[in-house]
Protein: Geranylgeranyl transferase type-2 subunit beta
Amino acid sequence: MTFLRNKHLEFIKNLENSTEKESFATEHLKTSAIYWAITTLDILDCLDLLDQSEVIKFILACQADNGGFGGNIDHDPHLLYTLSAIQILATYDKLDLIEPEKIINYVKNLQTEDGSFKGDEWGEIDIRFSYCSISILSILKSLDSINVKSAIQYIRRCQNFDGGFASVPDGESHGALCFCAVGSLVILNGLDYIDCDKLGWWLSERQLPIGGLNGRPEKLQDVCYSWWVLSCLRMIERDSWINKEQLISFILSSQDTEYGGIADRQGDIPDIFHTLFGVAALSMLGHNKNEFEEVDPRYCMTTRVTKRLDL
Structure:
């Protein structure tokens, strides 16, 4: 199967005309949904497909008084959506429209004594929030505003005997959480603290006979892990440990040939989340290089953006 570029662009364009039911289901994470769409377009070198001024207007309207961003207008701020907002503005080269200090203070005040980060004022701890904080502050050139040493120590505590990483210490290893851990450590120059061979073994074991990757043992293959797992393997220089051609075939088989977009696996309904991570993985896998911009495995943004930001 070939990559259905025009179908996917049409799919993204039609997201603006989603039904009321679809809009309701994604209302709480619209900021992230826009990041998924914008980044997909940037990888496909079609960033002008959506109205930049309208996107930026919406994103700025999602910022709360404390500096954080919510998933929609008048929603509570959270690190997940704050990162998505910063990534969107960075992609559009519009970081000058925000007050960095407000966001930096918001993020650093969510770090706890043990080095972990709360996602918001309500206190949930998760290694995802460590990654969000580190990524945000890296983009804003303010990593010195947090306790980097304790942040690294907390991430190391989340690694299990099998080499994988969990959301919290003693939790279950998970492919997406490995991305959060490895991405954070690479940004902080802390990768030497972990056994990359052991982690690489666990990650490469996520490939199933069908070619796709799963997030945990005994689970089904899912296109999104084509990004979470592959990007980790790339960052630790172990991506040769999986069969790339089989993974490409699996991603391409998960495309919707009628409406465009990519689903979690063949036969399911496509969505913008899996579309981004499928497209990003195809870029990283080197599939039809002339069709894709290069993607930075640390940030899931194009390298032309991260190079412009000098990351």
About this structure: The first helix runs from residue 5 to 13. The chain has 14 helices and two strands.
